[in-house]
């Protein structure tokens, strides 16, 4: 057998819609500009990978859909990593977890791959939506707040993103809060994850934070008796919280045809607050091109796209305790209009 090279692996963490894919694109572009071949493992809780549309076709990509790699399909992650390395021999791999993933569990899945393939886990980069964190911090409760806290604690580098959606004082407040939760990771404030990528990569060079996190993760395993995906929420002396995801719902609606852009926008403006993330591909009856639609923490965004290959018109809604049938009726009404 030939000596395998060691493949560096980066984990992208951060709540739904915080900007992980935006950062992923920048990382991929940077590595390509250095003449390297990056590969991507994308994990989505829905059954369509729309983020994949934002990644160039020549970037090898493995999709892990319809489940969260930190629980229901965690065992598959190490296999995916090994398979990707054997097939594509990439120079570097990025794992983009679902926004509801607990980073400690992903670290576990990645380190499992190290048992049978040469990898070098570089660290966890956590992207934070400033406006969203600010709201949760002010309320100081809820599963999302605890999960975001956990994602921040596990980071080796923190990207405080969407600073355009908070004012200067709020940004300072958030930077302080984040540093209290995680005193080790450097915090980089950004709009659209616009950072000097070498700064991010260099900041991961110091791996003392990563070892601390890995140690906490393995101690936790021992305490809770191993990999129990349905473990109910519990905290203990390390202050880590395992959140189970039974409460997160996904509704995927395939559209039968074009819809009116104005009507769609007002439908989105009136989404129940329980829907905290949506994305899709749409054809509007009043415009010629197709659009990639995004909705994150109540902010909609439309990007003109020309998808490669066959891509259906579809909208995926993610949230908690919302009525799927109400959304379905709303979408059907748009189709009929
Ligand atoms: N206002 C604002 N919007 C941003 C910023 N960064 C990203 N966005 C938008 O936020 C939305 C979500 O960004 P993504 O990069 O897809 O977020 P994500 O974390 O990959 O989302 P999931 O994969 O669903 O968890 C998109 O519409 C982005 O254009 C920012 O700094 N400010």
From TrEMBL:
Mind listing the GO molecular function terms for this protein? Answer: hydrolase activity; nucleotide binding
Per UniProt, which keywords does this protein have?
Chaperone, Hydrolase, Nucleotide-binding
Question: Mind telling me which InterPro entries this protein's record contains?
Answer: CobW-likC_sf (IPR036627), CobW-like_C (IPR011629), CobW/HypB/UreG_nucleotide-bd (IPR003495), P-loop_NTPase (IPR027417), Zinc-reg_GTPase_activator (IPR051316)
Region: Disordered, residue numbers:
215-243
Annotated CobW C-terminal domain residues: 255-333
Lineage: superkingdom:
Bacteria
Q: Could you confirm whether the keyword Nucleotide-binding appears in this record? A: yes
Q: GO CC terms on record?
A: cytoplasm
The segment(s) forming the CobW/HypB/UreG nucleotide-binding domain are 8-188
Does the keyword Chaperone belong to this entry? yes
What family is reported?
Belongs to the SIMIBI class G3E GTPase family. ZNG1 subfamily.
Q: What is this protein called?
A: GTP-binding protein
- Protein species of origin: Paenibacillus mangrovi
Taxonomic lineage of the native organism: Bacteria, Bacillati, Bacillota, Bacilli, Bacillales
